[in-house]
Amino acid sequence: MVSIPYLDKADLAPLADAAASWKALPAKYEALQREFEQRVINHLKGHWEGDAADAAFTTMGKARTEYENAATEAERIAKLLLDAHGEFTASQKQLHALLDEARDDHYKVYDDGRVEDVDPRQDSPTASASPGLAEERKKKLDSLVSRLTRVLEVATAADEAASSALERDANGDSQSFNTSVYTTLDSVEADQASALMNKKGRLSDAEITKLNLLLSANKNDPEFSREFAVKTGGENMLSKYNELMSPPAGTTLSKEQLAQLKQLKANLGTTIGTATTSDDHRKGGPDPEITKFQNDLLKAGRRDFNANPTESPYGLSGYQLTSSLMSEGKWDKDFLQDYGDALITAERNGANAGQNPDAYWGYPRTLGTTNIGALDPMAGYMDALGHNPEASTEFFGSETSVNGEKVDHYDYLMKDRHWPEGAGYTGDDKNPNGYNNLGHALESATTGHAYDAPIPNPLPKHTTEQADLTSKIISDVSQHPELAHKGMNDSLGRMSAEYMPDINRALANDEQGLDKLYPEGDSAPATISDKSERDVTRFLYTVAQDPDGYAAINYGQTQYTSSLMEYHLEHPGAYDVSATEKIEKISTNSAEIEGIIGTARKDAVIHDKVADDAVFNSRIEAAGEWAKTGVGIGIGAGTATIASPAGGAVAGAAAEWVSGQVIDSMVSGASRDSLGEVVYSTGGEVEDRKRSFMAVTSNAAMLANERAETGLSQEQVDTAVSKGLNSGHGNAKDNLDDYASDLDADTSGLGN
Length: 752
Fold this sequence. Notes:
- By secondary structure, this protein is mostly helical.
- The chain has helices at about 5-10, 15-45, 50-105, 125-130, 135-165, 185-200, 205-220, 220-230, 235-245, 255-275, 290-300, 320-325, 335-350, 355-360, 375-385, 390-395, 410-415, 425, 435-445, 465-480, 490-500, 500-505, 515, 530-545, 545-570, 580-605, 615-620, 625-630, 655-670, 685-710, 715-740, 745; strands at about 105-110, 115, 305, 315, 400, 405-410, 640-645, 650.
- Helix 30 (about 685-710) crosses helix 31.
- The radius of gyration is 32 Å and the shape is globular.
- The chain starts with a helix and ends in a 6-residue tail after the last helix.
- Residues about 170-175, about 635-655, about 670-680 and about 745-750 have low confidence and may be disordered.
């Protein structure tokens, strides 16, 4: 591995000089060739005849070819050296930036890559005891270590590739010039990686480490990924992956070896995903070789792979292996559609033969002794959709024809499919059923961004297809709460957070001027149903009985309320009522949502759906980092501008300062009452929740009030918030009595 001191101090000027010298050689060789022809060949032509002359002219003709080959080799070496210089320069700049960042933020980076926190605040009892400081410093340290490792990996792979390319003798015993010199490090590294994947027999630990280094350094590089995939081949890639993850029976792997294989799974999956998207912007359409690679993967899905045929006649199917890799990276949209159609077709045909997914994908198939992967290929496929919003939205809005029968993708996965239970099916001990993965795909399909990516700011515009799918999910869960399975409520909660404008409009459906109070911007609205108030109430109540769902909705509503306060107080003409009325109306709807999810939280504990109330608070704390990225959840979500009544344009992302302050305060636990007690994340009792709501919402309203300089006093703000709180809680109670009184029995399995 290239060391930090070496890369930090490396003088790259000689490499640039060498590249320039080699670049100048072709012109010199061409000049020598012309001089040779003029002074020797042309001079002898017409003056020398006979056998000796014929032999001499033949030899001189070969000399001309050698001059041409010499020029070609020099040109290719120049390109290789220039590429190497570019790679090393980029890595060195990245390293310098990281070292500067570490120094400025009081971290010490040692030559061996270790990073130590030397922040003087660590020695201060007062500062070190402040909420979240230790956790924040640890996360920054881990991030620095990760990024430093990445830079060194890229530099090491480039260094080894450059050395290999320059030492390579493609001509063998020939004394001629080498015209097949590599021109890019990507080609060298792709050849090295594919050679390891094509090697017969198991790879050694050193070879697995080398393969990991190559893939990790280049997994997001389209040129490398394409060459690697094409040279490895779809079926051969699955076969070698299966072999690596299924060592012979009796093999004992160390923790380090298992860690290497897990890393290989992640690196290989991301690399292949990048390969499938490498021709997305190619002139002239899809790359035929990438299309062939994708078709080979589809064909290989139908066959079984067995790494150790003498020990067991059964192995994993190509679908199981491909889906295992698919959970990593971003895969091509069109390939994902074809792959999903093929998976559903296989399952429905299995069902027609009397096999549900448990039997179809389970015994006698088993994971290898490493236990890496998943038996249910739908789990990894759902995560692949979760990383590609365009693909997931399209997939849930389409259908597959199986033996002449139309199978709606959404209905099949959400309502009809029997999802196998057990960590072996998902490859995740913490989520032993695929509903967690289904949630990831639905989250991506409705929000327009990857489920595990930070919330974009501003949010992407919600398309009609995304909004329609959201409406369908809300309506279905409202009518059939058992569809909100354990494992998917965190995703349903985050989806709800990003549709807060629509949810607020649905709950305030008798309010005048809804379009002005809750501006839509350019996003397509989620017209939930003709019974939207009922459906939203039941949906929120159902999802919020899960601690993760509750935390996401709570944070999302707080973000939206805070942004709405800021927007309306800074733009008095946008909704033509007094400032106190605005605060009261916004607080009313916010309190109604809080009342619904707060009751759900209390009922979940009472009915033993959650062990105790502390679980909710732990989930709120865990969701804090996600919430901090949520400044995009606000007015005009998904838009660049919102037209004001005065005809001007207000940036949708502008109304975020207050929400950022409020969320930071909530996450750090800094919202405190006069006794210095944390008032957010308190218990589930009504009075506790009211006190928490008052503290947080009054804080948001007062920050917005001061920023807009409306002149309202703290007392006026608190009074308006209090009125809204009482009205909103009353509305929540009425709605729950009217619409959700039957849900306790319907949701008896929730959280188990």
